[in-house]
């Protein structure tokens, strides 16, 4: 059992405040309802036939007070018993706690029905008692009193049912948070709406209808008396109907509003939005379903983020927006290959955690520089990395971006990673040209990559750069394809690279009087707080 589940189970029971609130919302409406029924039965509805039995009113009043007191006490005790769950001992095992949670959950979710049943029984007993109290002296009075008690009881129980739902909402949220509803445990939205009309509107109108039928069939109503009856019952219908419909609308509006608020958060990009599940109808299923949907969106975003970190954001976006097709297309790209020098010796004399920390610092600079210049890391190969510019997202000046990234990377690595170690360094090779970019492999496992001569040439130049001052070498093909960035590079002779039949023209960052040319990116200086020229000059001269 997880800590969260245990905490939810411990807090799922009814607290003292909830129990007091339940007593108030059950007792007060029933006392008020009983008072309204008394007024209607004793002074509004009676006709001239009441004068035939002068003691009827006194007899009913004498019985009304004691029964109301007994009904309140019995209802409170009975309701408390129906809503009570015995406490578990502290040393109870997980199985006993699970059963306890299910009992509490059942009591909370079925609480409105349980308390409504208690009240219904007491109102039925009251109706039977007052019918027997009057029917032997006058069948008409007995029917009149009994109908008034029944209709008043229906209206009162319906209002109390809605109020109990509101009071138990926080408890329902706690038990449904751990275990959302799998089906409706209480009447659904349709029955809730129809019940609101039935108990709030149809019941008092039925009283008006019965009064009219009695006046037409039995008689005994004067025009003035009938008008009073209709006005009073219509007023009760307006008040009662408005109360029941309002409570019914609130019980439907609250869960929908909760989902709507959470939906706005999701629309704004907040995937931490969560809806408290407190409704046991189809709306509760909607709340729980929304949470499951957001969980799925969070998981999808997490996978997408991990996917982007693995293959690069541009490649991930390209894969998600397009169908998977094996093969590739010929594109104009620039390639930067960077390899750490001295890591093998370092691994032999340093603990593994220090080696990993150094590699992370090294790759952090590499990734930052490449992304700032519009490229992406195609792959890591041990202590080396291959960066591509111009695929899958096209760049106006892919070669210029790669050359600028190489200059800045060499300076930043020398200053931020290798400044404290004379045995460490890095070689950076840059090339450009046409290459095939696409998905290579099989539909079961593939990789977006670039294949072609620029990749091979950049790798060879990287090996060569390890022995060149500044440790950054570019091919003539890369410089010839670059825009303004080409002016910051100068020739460095030619060399026949391994595996090639022709010599390759070499270029390195231009230097004047032992200093690099102007125009080095400001980001080099930002990392140390120095001016761009000073920062880059010191970094390159340290080589």
TrEMBL record:
Coiled-coil ranges (or none): none
Segments of skewed composition (Basic and acidic residues): 499-508
InterPro entries: A/G_cyclase (IPR001054), Adenylyl/Guanylyl_Cyclase_3/4 (IPR050697), HAMP_dom (IPR003660), Nucleotide_cyclase (IPR029787)
GO molecular function: nucleotidyltransferase activity
Compositional bias annotation for Polar residues: 528-543
Domain Guanylate cyclase: 334-462
Region Disordered, residue ranges: 495-543
Main location: membrane
Protein location: Cell membrane
Topology of this chain in the membrane: Multi-pass membrane protein
Transmembrane segments: 20-45, 57-78, 113-135, 141-164, 194-220, 226-250
A Pfam family assignment: HAMP
EC code(s) of this entry: 2.7.7.-
Domain HAMP: 250-302
Keywords annotated in UniProt: Cell membrane, Membrane, Nucleotidyltransferase, Transferase, Transmembrane, Transmembrane helix
CDD domains: CHD (cd07302), HAMP (cd06225)
Entries under Gene3D superfamilies matching the protein: 6.10.340.10, Nucleotide cyclase
Family the UniProt entry places it in: Belongs to the adenylyl cyclase class-3 family.
Protein name: Adenylate/guanylate cyclase domain-containing protein
Organism field: Actinomycetospora aurantiaca
